[in-house]
Input
Amino acid sequence: MSRENFFGTLAGAVLAATVALPQSATAQDVRFAADRGEVTYAADIAPILEENCVRCHHPGTAAPMALQTYADVRRYANRIKTSVENRMMPPGWYIDSTVGIQDFKNNPQLSDEQIETITRWVDAGAPQGDMSQLAPGKEWKGEHEYWQLEDEFGWGPPDFIITAPSFTVPAESGDQWWEPETALADVVDRPITSDRWVRALETRPGDAASAYVFHHVNTGLRRDDQADNDLDGGGLTDAAVGKRIDMYPNDSGKLVRPDDRISFSLHLFSIGKEVEAKVQIGVWLYPEGERPKYATEDETSFNSGESASLRLPRYTDMLIPPNGYQELRGTFVLDQNVRVHSIRGHMHLRGGYQMMEAIYPDGRREVINKINWSHLWHTTHIYEDWAQPLLPKGTVIIATSLMDNTAQNPSNPDPEQWVVYNRRSVGEMAHIRFGITYIPDEEFQQMLEERERVLAEQAQRGQPIASR
Ligand code: HEC
Output
């Protein structure tokens, strides 16, 4: 089966009227391309790198080199060109651009024009230009010193910070799991005194040394009184390599209570020296006394290959042959109306791709998104408000995962092995998380009508919704 054809045939039906278009040029890009003969570091390249790369490429981060001065950038010019041309940098964006929804709040990718500007500059011998034009670079903080929501999204500091009980990771050992549970009030810097609603969360290493030992950090709230379904505890936030933030739609939140307990699930690995692993979670709240319209379920897992209806343990069917593939598929019928605000895949080293499709109650079938997997970054892709999939009660969700155990998979440590389910990265997992909120019938109907109106308006302006 040719993958291109398979996706090509499904791509016709479009839920949010989003089609894959190249990202539109900014005014600045057009100026670069049209008016200027020569592309220079000072005028063109430094601003692109400052905005898109230096946050990670400065001393004290996990990135291998700083890209802050002309000398640095010139030295790595060829590698920069390759890494932007093949869209490996900026990293962490694996939404397939040829199918499904393309409108996200946190897409870090360069525009085609920016990539072309960099390529032209490198091909022209990386000229420096007039350095007096160059604005002074920003001061950058280490991974453990900044909050992306504060420093990049402009949200102000978190309302309180959770610090997980620390764990000593030995210099040499297998994977470690650390799963303590404690009173929330014992691990926050500013305990809350009344019921509050969470708008967003961000996980960061507690100090510089801890930045390299975490595979994932999952937290959940534990609450005894679950009489009101809306208000039970459940997951708080999950973070993994490359994933820091969770952000809810601005009418949705998650309840947190002063006497909640909090459970942590930390998956850690050794890096050749002993590390006292510390992690912090910043929490942004709705104002005191304000209750958002909806209590969100947030990230909800859809497993491929889970024989749930047969009550079998998860991934019973997973058995990936050496030098081969396995495709796993799970189907789920929604028993309530759902609005989806984010998507995040999860596989390990044999991950190939994952895909979420919807079959609507009227029979239409549509690819919502396809994620081309990389084990290095675990981004939550957050939909623009007007692109959030609206899935009515009765919709069938198909979660497909293709496991790739061939030598062509660059992450594959050993294509000669049979691979089965395991929590460790050498075994596999295959689930996809949708950030979801359940919406009552009448309000869901209004959302559908509003969506129709926005799409019609955009179409009338000749402005397909995917272009920004
Ligand atoms: C979110 C953090 C982050 C951002 C943003 C980022 N990088 Fe990187 N970059 C990394 C990390 C970590 C590595 C090393 C691991 C890897 O290659 O994935 C890396 C590796 C590289 C490499 C080395 C690849 C090689 O040849 O081995 C280059 C070149 C590079 N980045 C250029 C860029 C450019 C240019 C941008 C902006 C357009 C950028 N990066 C944005 C984190 C980042």
Q: What stands out?
A: The radius of gyration is 23 Å. The CA atoms of residues 295 and 322 lie 45 Å apart. Residues 441-460 form the longest helix (20 residues). DSSP finds eight helices and 22 strands in the chain.
